[in-house]
């Protein structure tokens, strides 16, 4: 039976991906923060002792609180360096993805259009995007596809924390609504279900036509 | 019943999309060059007299023969300006896409990494990508999603014309093979089937990890 | 004596480049619309009969009036296809740039972040950017450098036509002002004066930190 | 008198920038590794005790040895996280750039086209590029320009360490040669000398037409 590990699988986009993969008879382990805290490399290593191989891996984690550059401390940087970058790196250095598998990275549209308040997230998610791009070529040799999904504003607890008045915010969006986590869940499911493999090494903005840059 | 028009729908990637949409009970019109020749604006207009509305539109057309810049004639430029740009523009200015519909553009990975021999294709497909990006924001208001798929090397007649020794060429690719048209066919089908709408205004490299640029 | 041809050299950014190149003893021909109308290929060819070689070439032309997509006519597309794309292509196919020379393209920041009202300009300037990128590699063999400058909002007659209330607009810009044509003039002059050659094949946003996309 | 601090100012591109700024009567402090080791945050803080303000700041540092992903240790990541990212962040959080000043970042072309062997450099330089982009908008309010120069292959000790046979390598480059540090030195000098301010918030590939991606 095909196995999947979904980090941050207990809520938001991660939960939607877990649910949709379960619907096609995949054996999903939806890892919550209790199972693995990517900001703590020891926690990551312990997790890897148990979960050392999989067919499908979803790299997904929340970002930091919005914070202005001048107020970000050395500890903040180091914590989120772990959470958004080094934890994922450690996983990829140690986990075995089975031949023909998939790795999906859930990053953020702020990697292409960085955001003042989300500067930590913009920085470290971009850093990991570089790593993921390089690795996609190596994984390709084992027929493993690497897809970086960069969500814009989605209907999650996180967005409701970040945005004061969601209703007003939605009016400013091209589609007049937030994205629904199920849309990403179904997207991931479809790629796996249809054995689409040639989609790899790509960053896919998933933002309801909200971004402005051409690529 | 949901209607789809697939330009270039009789061969290659267009045919694969037609076939996969048919498999989910969509009423597909796979337009061949007999039905519409996008390099001839009169042909485009005649086509639009009959096909003036649809739910799903696939903008897809072959590119020109490889030609070095110095040998491209004014007529070449004008022909492919029509075929790769103005024909599609004319369609979008005149066709009605129904609320909740989809437009898929099949462009090419040469828009991000332009190719000496495919300079005409690089230029006009990039031009149309700009138009498509701008329009994605307007279509969003009617819940119409615009997805630009930029294929790398695929297993089509076209590729066999362009590449001398396909077997050798495949060895140079990260996945050691060309993409299969069915992968794009299934990709398009899945988005429609799962009613994924928030994927819009995006250019998706579909190239088996072959490109080198980060975005 | 080093020769330069500056298209659109009688006003705005083109004039500023002409003036700054003259200040370093370059023999500048500032071509006005009387000398060459890039929207008319016959005019382009006549110009090339006289100006068939140069050391420095500045490809620079105004864009179209702002126009919404639905109102753009076939003639509009064709006119600006000539003016923003095919005229420049014809020049590069026919003019001799001397060994060690320079070609500067003055495009626009709308090629990276396309603009609804400037959709024609976004499209054809992007198309030419693709051509220019491909050619930069060929010109490199003759030590000719190709630099694409993509200006944001500058203090030109053009901007005053496009923007209703310039004073108010300026307050929305990161630098609280428009760019001054002399800044681009001096930039071009400096590269030539200092014989900087390794800057080539690049698109340089010149927009006072106004754009939002990372690259 | 205008003051400049040039990190990594004792060799390679840093030295060339130091020398060219000195030639226009700027009071340059070319910081060597003795003065500041950006991989050691204590060293950075000590440096900032003495050098707490400047008109011009050049953020420049060497990258790590080439290393394959699987062999990079946690300590490697942390060291270069400091050297390529957190050291620069700490500087910008603490140093005062005087009104009308400049910050130049010397990054690398690997941020746009990441490199397997230089994966650490690709990641952290991209991360800092995001920070630098966000900050360029804030600095703009004080008329401080932020320019990110992304060099391709240059004629430095570093390149000679990375490349086995430089002569052979040069033949593969569009200009058949490495870039000369003086070209970047003169570029920086020219911008300062001509008080060009509107060039800001931009990443400039400086690679002799070597890159393949359109932007």
How would the blueprint of this fold be written?
The structure is a homotetramer of 215-residue chains.
Chain A: E1 3-7, H1 12-22, E2 27-31, H2 41-50, E3 53-60, H3 74-94, E4 96-106, H4 119-140, E5 145-151, H5 157-162, H6 166-171, H7 181-193, E6 202-206
Parallel strand pairs in A: 1-2, 1-3, 3-4, 4-5, 5-6
Helix pairs in contact in A: 1-7, 2-3, 3-4
The 3D shape of chain A can be described as: globular
- Report low-confidence residues of chain A grouped into runs of 5 or more: none
If you average the pLDDT of chain A, what whole number results? 97
User: What's the quaternary structure here?
Assistant: homotetramer
**How many whole angstroms does the radius of gyration of chain A measure?**
17 Å
Helix content of chain A: 40-55%
Helix run count of chain A: 7
The SSE order of chain A reads: EHEHEHEHEHHHE
What does this structure look like?
- 4 copies of one chain form a homotetramer.
- Chain A is of the alpha/beta class.
- Chain A is 41% helix and 19% strand.
- The first copy, chain A, has 7 helices and 6 strands, in the order E-H-E-H-E-H-E-H-E-H-H-H-E.
- Chain A has a 6-stranded parallel β-sheet, sandwiched between helices.
- In chain A, strand 4, helix 4 and strand 5 form a beta-alpha-beta unit.
- In chain A, helix 1 packs parallel to helix 7, helix 2 packs parallel to helix 3 (74-94) and helix 3 packs parallel to helix 4.
- The longest helix of chain A has 22 residues, at 119-140.
- Chain A starts with a strand and ends in a 9-residue tail after the last strand.
- In chain A, 59% of the residues are buried.
- Chains in contact: A-B, A-C, A-D, B-C, B-D, C-D.
- Chain B binds chain D through residues 111-114, 126, 211-214, and chain D through 111-114, 126, 211-214.
């Amino acid at each position: 039976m095909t196995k999947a590990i979904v980090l941050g699988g207990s809520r938001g986009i991660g939960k939607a991906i877990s649910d949709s993969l379960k619907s096609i008879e995949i054996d999903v382990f939806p890892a919550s923060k209790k199972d693995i805290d990517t900001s703590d490399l020891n926690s990551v290593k312990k997790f890897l002792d148990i979960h050392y191989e999989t067919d499908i891996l979803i790299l997904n984690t929340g970002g930091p609180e919005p914070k202005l550059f001048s107020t970000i401390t050395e500890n903040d940087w180091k914590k989120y360096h772990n959470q958004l970058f080094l934890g994922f790196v450690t996983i990829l250095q140690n986990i075995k993805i089975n031949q023909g598998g998939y790795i999906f990275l859930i990053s953020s549209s702020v990697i292409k259009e960085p955001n003042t308040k989300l500067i930590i997230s913009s920085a470290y998610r971009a850093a990991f995007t570089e790593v993921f791009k390089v690795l996609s070529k190596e994984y390709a040799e084992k027929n493993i596809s690497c897809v970086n999904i960069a969500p814009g504003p989605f209907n999650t607890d996180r967005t409701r924390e970040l945005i004061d008045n969601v209703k007003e915010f939605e009016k400013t969006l091209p589609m007049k609504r937030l994205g629904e986590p199920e849309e990403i869940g179904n997207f991931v499911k479809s790629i796996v279900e249809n054995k689409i493999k040639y989609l790899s090494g790509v960053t896919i903005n998933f933002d309801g036509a909200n971004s402005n840059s051409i690529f």
